[in-house]
Amino acid sequence: MCRVAGYIGPRQKLGALIEDPAHSLLVQSYAAKELETSVVSADGWGAAWYLDPGEPPCMYRSTLPIWGDSNRRELARGIQSHCLLAAVRSATDPLSIAAHNTQPFRFDQLTFLHNGYLEDFAARWMRPLRQSLSETAYRAVSGVSDSEHVFAIVLDEWLRQSEAEAETRLSRAVEAAVRRLLASAALLDARALLTLVVSDGQQLLAARAAHRAECPTLYRFDEPEGGGVSFASEPLDSQAGWTPIAVGSLCRVRLGQPPKSWELA
Questions:
Q1: What pLDDT was estimated at residue 94?
Q2: E strand or H helix at 26, and its extent?
Q3: Quick one: pLDDT at residue 16?
Q4: What does each C-alpha distance from 172 to 39, 48, 51, 164, 203 come to in angstroms?
Q5: Are 24 and 221 in contact (CB under 8 A)?
Q6: Can you spell out the DSSP letters for 1-25?
Q7: Mean pLDDT computed over 51-69
Q8: Taking the complete model, does pTM exceed 0.90, yes or no?
Q9: pLDDT per residue over 141-193, tens digit each?
Q10: Hey, is 87 helix, strand or coil?
Q11: 146-160 helix and 166-188 helix, angle to the nearest 10 degrees
Q12: Which domains does the chain have, with CATH numbers?
């Protein structure tokens, strides 16, 4: 499993996710407390950040373990944004270690993280998922990981929601994508673990769902007095206030608005 984190709110440095806290993604990459199916997340790392709301995001991805990347410290202290996403990777298939299989994934203004897996992905999932995609979503896939194909389903639903209001378009797409993936899991009789963090620069969404399996953990922390909101696979520090995202639910945080959570239909 991977370890993921996201933030939205007043501008802060990338280091607030990947390096500065006592249990940052750097620490979680080699000393995770709730990582069940692997020991370390050493198969690469990446980050995405938005320069301004409404602009396409920037991205950095590396196949190096986060602790071995000499760029990490410079990126941690040099990048500041109102919306940040980052992940350290533990590849389900060691042969898939490559930059194009490393998260985050991006299309237009969307950025995406997935922690989990689709059981027997290459043998059972890949072909039917690809066949179900629109041409635009299909062409957006450059790698072979299950996570990128989960993103492609989210993207496919987001493209279908082009007439929806901006405030609800992304959450409707994520809900529809999760339903679609769970239906495929039932049809294939295969496990699906779906812990997602998605953003369009104006909002940050977190979702947890699973079929025939325990869903990877995800927590939320609301900074006091109108500060930002963070999501992370494990609490980034020992502050009180980190609360788990419930399985079968979605949480949406829009800039300047309080978080809103609801059950996935």
A1: 65
A2: helix 25-31
A3: 98
A4: 35, 22, 25, 9, 13
A5: no
A6: --EEEEEEEEEEETHHHHTSSTT-H
A7: 93
A8: yes
A9: 999 999 999 999 999 999 999 988 988 999 999 999 999 999 999 999 999 99
A10: strand
A11: 130
A12: 3-263 (3.60.20.10)
Q: What is the full DSSP assignment across 163-187?
A: TS-HHHHHHHHHHHHHHHHHHHHHH
Residues with Cβ within 8 Å of 92's Cβ and at least 6 positions away in sequence, in order, are 117, 121, 145, 146
Query: What mean pLDDT comes out for the span 98-116?
Result: 95
- Does residue 62 sit in helix, strand or coil? strand
* 199 token code pair: 């953003």
- Which residue in the list 2, 83, 215, 251 is annotated as catalytic? 2
Q: Are 17 and 236 in contact (CB under 8 A)?
A: yes
Q: Give me the residues paired with residue 84 across strands.
A: 7, 49
User: What does the pLDDT read at residue 93?
Assistant: 66
- Cα distance between residue 257 and residue 9, in whole Å: 10
Q: Is the pLDDT of residue 2 over 80?
A: yes
The residue type at 89: R
3 state DSSP class of 117: coil
Active site annotation includes 251: no
For tokens 């993921």, the residue is: 4
Distance between CA 103 and CA 221 in Å, rounded? 22
